[in-house]
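Database export, one record per block. Field names are fixed; values are copied verbatim from the stored entry.
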Amino acid sequence: RSYQLEACGPGVAGVTPFWAELRGRNRKALILDAPEVGCVPGLRGLQLADEAPLGHAQRTASEPPELVAEALRAIGPPIWQDYEEASTARQDEQMFRRLLNQIERKGAYCRHLLDRHSFDLIVVVFDRTHIGSHWFWKYSSNSSGSAGGALTNAIRELYEAIDRQMGLLLARLPPETNVLLFSLFGIQTNYPTSGFNDVLCRR
């Protein structure tokens, strides 16, 4: 038995997303940027998985395969690999503008797909708040030792930008559409905890 930690995702556990239930039911789905689940074979519609992967383990994939290139042209390249913990204020301002731009472009791409196709299920993920929270937390008034300045409200402004795009998407949908909005997690200041799991397992 080993207590070494190993990164894994739903695919390793054999878990499928709920939209896999639509296979064989003559239903069409738009799955845009669902993280860590991959594409569901045999599902009608359009699927883009891990458009902005959180690490090297995930690979951007799509059904049909050519959707990857189209989406990356429309939205822009993933930003995670550009993360710098010791970035300068100028680099942070540039990243903030990049994130806002990609949120706007992603919303426009979603609307473009909705105008071209009709779907029974739409799953759209806006994930730029994840890297944005890591990048701009040092400026937040909630952070101990906040750097403050022009980026004090950067995280909130990213959420507001996504909120605007969601409003534009909802305006494209019929009034009887069932809508579910959710957020996976937030962020807060903590002491480093990366070694806790190993210590707990061994003791």
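Remark 1: The radius of gyration is 19 Å.
Remark 2: Residues 89-116 form the longest helix (28 residues).
End of record.
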